[in-house]
Amino acid sequence: MEFKDIPNGGTSQMPIPGVSVNEQTGSIRIEEGPIPTPQGVAPAPGPIAAQIEADKQAVLRRMREESFRHLGKYALIFALLYVLCLYKNRTGITYPIYALGALWLIWKERKEAGAARRVTEDAARKGMHLFYAAAILLLAVSRATTMDSFLHFFDWAAMVLLTLSLLISVYTGTENESFLAQLGALVHAWVLPLIHLAVPFLDWSAFRRSKREAAGKGGKKSTGMYILIGLLISVPLLAVIISLLASADLVFSRILERMIYGWSLPDFFGDLVGILFFFCAAFLCIYIWMSRTAETNFRVKEITTSWEPVIAITFNALIAVVYLLFSGIQFVYLVGHMELPGGYTYAEYAHEGFYQLLAVVILNLILVSFCKKFFGKNKALQILLLIISLCTYIMIASAGMRMILYVQAYGFTRLRIYVLWALVALAYCMSVLTVSIFREHTKVYRLCVIFVTCWYLAFAFSHPDAWIARYNLSLDKRDNYLVYDTSLDAATVIHEAGGVLSDRYFKQHNEEMADYMEGNLYYRIRHFNTSLWSASKYYDHELHVKEGNGSRYDW
């Protein structure tokens, strides 16, 4: 027997066979297939069965109609906010505005949903909701304070993960204790719009049908939708026609450019398509997340049967012996500074095995999590997992010392500083996992996500490019890395260093600053970034003009 979940748009007390109400969320489920009848009772006659089926379909349409009526306006506002704030703007001050607006929409929707469709929240869950919201806002602020493309990517990734965690918690009230299980739930939530892509269209269709029926009964014809359809048809036609006419006549093109100051007509059609695409994508995604998250089970079923612990004891014992031998070697060569094999320097020795060691550390995290989840509780197994965890700390320390030796010899790069950050995060996660070996109900995911988020925020707001430049300059390393691979976050440090390095660096970034400095007021407000603004005082307009770049806003 198959069941089909209906978006939460209200509740129904109608005693219709095949229709059930979720007591927690207030959503309604419509059973598909033959209409159920109690055991020993003959199926209803044909006309009655047809009436029951018609009632079921009426409930389904009503639920879809109310779902779109309730969620459509929030999805529309979110899509407009997304396009206005984020389209072609990965670094601007509009990011915090977008994040604040999105969080407000989630809060407003839950408040309007009513008590029947809100999950019960305890103090700990409310605290996590506040943490998620604060972290998302701070990550958005981080994007507007740095020009580091690596930080932009990690800011975005962290915002996505925290937003999905917030939606799952707010709409379902569930959270998996296991870190891996919760990551699986986040992946499920991420692909939810693809799974239920048809839902917004079906809900909109039911909503339109209801509006037409209401207009028919009232004897009035609504022309608003027809006007909207006409406008939507005219937009792509006008875009093509205007682009062709602008290409055909230079005077017409210049007049239009002045009318829409800040847009280049050759890009106009592309921008229009891009805006429409991202608007529709944002509308569909937030609508599906709001309507389907509450109906989706993100909790991973607990394992009721466990494998024989002797299996895990056997392979973990062998692994532990190898790890103990390896850990002893780390003390001898990295702490004791014993003589290395011929032809090796300590920097080369440190660099050679770092990434392999990092891979083993991550493998150990997975191994301990796997054994803890799938094998029965056993004292011997717990001791072996503890030994592996302690050896993992030694590996983390060894990896850190290797990287520090290499940095002392060759200076910092982004990759080297990021892996040092990751080692601290891995050490903390390993500590939480070690505690969970002996304390079964440890909130592994919650503890890890709080620390890693705070640790990342501290790292991001420190502007690592700036202190990479400062440290490398202290080693007198004025190489191409500082010119080509550091962002404008390092502008002040490199300007203070002066010399040829400063000239080459600002020549490399001059075009990036020119886009901002020579833009119109709207462009400069929308793309305002504190790091870019701070570096812009070193912008050389004469160099920009001398190289023949001009400004994209010169008419």
Describe the protein in words.
The chain has a three-stranded antiparallel sheet, with helices on one face. With 555 residues, the chain is an all-alpha fold. Mean pLDDT is 77; it is low at 1-17, 23-28, 261-266 and 548-555. The protein folds into three domains: 64-302, no CATH class; 309-462, no CATH class; 468-546, no CATH class. It has 23 helices and three strands.
Helix-strand blueprint:
Elements: E1 2-5, E2 19-21, E3 28-32, H1 46-86, H2 94-113, H3 123-143, H4 149-172, H5 179-190, H6 192-195, H7 199-218, H8 224-248, H9 250-259, H10 265-292, H11 309-335, H12 346-352, H13 354-374, H14 379-410, H15 414-438, H16 444-461, H17 464-474, H18 480-484, H19 491-497, H20 499-517, H21 521-526, H22 530-535, H23 541-546
Antiparallel strand pairs: 1-3, 2-3
